[in-house]
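Q: How would the structure tokens look for this protein?
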Amino acid sequence: MVQMVNVTYGTSKATTNALGQRPMQARTYAARAAQFLLLKAPPAAGKSRALMFVALDKLRHQGLEKVIVCVPETSIGGSFRSTDLTSYGFEADWEVDDRWNLCLTGEDADKQKVKAFQTFMDSDASVLVCTHATFRFGFDEVIKTKGIEAFDSCFIAIDEFHHVSASDNNRLGVILRSLINRAECHVMAMTGSYFRGDADPVLRPEDEDRFTKITYSYYEQLEGYAWLKALGINYEFYKGNYVNGLPGVLNPDQKTIIHIPHRGSSEAFDDKFNEVGKIIDLLGTHEGRDPETGFDLVRKPDGAVLKVADLVDDGPGRDIVKAALSREIKGRDGKRDDVADRAKVDIIIALGMAKEGFDWVWCEHALTIGYRSSLTEIVQIIGRATRDAPGKPRALFTNLVAEPGVETGVVTDAVNDMLKAISGSLLMEQVLAPNFKFYRREDGDVRAPMGSDDEGNITIGIKGLVEPPTDRSREICEKDMNDLMATAYQEMDRRVLSPDTAPEVATQMVLTDIIEKRYETLDAEEAESVRQHLAAHMNVLTLARKEAERGFAEGQSPLSGTPPKPSGDDDDGDPASAPNTLLEMVRKFINVRDIDIELIDSVNTFQERFEVASKSLNSELLSHVQSAMVALRVNMTGDEARTLWPRIKAFRATEGREPNVHSANPLEKRMAEALAWLKAEKAKRLREGAL
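A: Here is the predicted structure in token form.
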């Protein structure tokens, strides 16, 4: 088992205000007057209820006449059903007539639902819930006869907003752009993903600038939980087929969602029905199905009976299982009975379902088989386990993946798969961390090197940091860091993980290239300020971890996963025990080290995480993987050679000689190659009279 991320959180408990709003909901409600709202908040933060508060205000006080709530699939529509809000202090309840909740039955966008959408637009009804698909088709039908102005008095809410794309091929994105450009209706976009997709942006920059953004971080969410206080993200390798690896990671006593591999992937070794059958056989003896719920009943060796919900079987029985899950895990009236509800289902096995918007608060373990190239999908799957529930102190995400076997002859694919796993773990660590803001710290600065601002951001001073020189660069540093980090992790190339790659190549050359591609109009100073802030965000946790591994003090490792002791517990007389949360680890690091931008640039966080992942590989296999990385490395470029020049000068000053191209040290060899390139380039320019 490779433990990639392991974080624990504090003991504060979120409270509701006089209107019955949790902190994120209150923050969103405070921005209710904005015409265009973009809410980024993690799964289980209460985005659906935040929408209800805003929508009711739009209807009652802002002159809008209709609310259209769009969700990506029918199963998510239940989150927007009628809800009692007045009992908790709000001025009105959220009421949706079953007739206008088009997610209750049928296919996503059948003709009856599109017709119902048109009927709603002609009626006096106020609230409609439908899928993205129904909205697309319904929109097209309405504008044929009434024009786009039919939506002028509407408040349109788009849940799981990362499904939208700025591409001209994305119909929902095109519709949204037309509504924004007309600027008559109101829009609220909601997403649990903190970054854009793998290719096209969700919104074009000029459109995104029109949105008022509300961001509520995973850190804020988990810090305010009453029960869930620790989250682990692990990777486990298996040999043969994935069922061989399940005994080491699947605990039948934990409430678990198992996502089997995508069909056509290398991890899928049989048809999906047989794979589910083998998983059930591993759990125990199949004793039939519950006729009311459709759940498989599996007797474990100890005699206990597991209730297994099979969402992979797409036959007629799946509708029974889906309905039972909605009923049993949420309650018929939406209210929980903690003891009874926890016992209603034990294991859920899914393929393309039970991801975004799927609410099973008791889920303790999200077990995903096979690499997921989409970081958005990883965040969504992990979110299934991060609900707060009584008796649930810890949640776990495990990615069970095939060991990159040399015998398969597909070493290149194995390398790529490892990079995906590393990228996902790096991004999730950033998502789970506090929101850091960096400022330039000079000699004699009286401010503490680490503090917090009025918005709850953790502020850290860095010597030599280039402050954003313009409003545009400042806005990027304040609002776009999560997107930029996701891009950096997704575009991680093989040079960055080669053993002969200097850290500066990752922190300077690669990051600069990403920033210049995304923000073509930035000048050199603006781009460098953004690059330094991005490098600081990506590397401060790695620096703190390295310091912790060297030993802040004797005691528990900060990554051991031991939850923090409650206040007043006996600490065995060791008050200097190592920190056990990300924030404590960083705070301790800042207290013992003055950090400057050169220290930030001296770390290749990709390489650090690769070393963690590679610990599970034997020496022969690791050698094959590393050889593949070196062989796939691109040739020397001018940018890399110039980036290595300061290191070459330092090497000459220290060693009294130039780096040797035949050195056994791969980094020295690479510096020698860079020096040769620079000399050749200089000679070329002299010949051409450029110097």
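The first strand starts at residue 2 and ends at 8.

The CA atoms of residues 452 and 458 lie 4 Å apart.

Upvote if useful.
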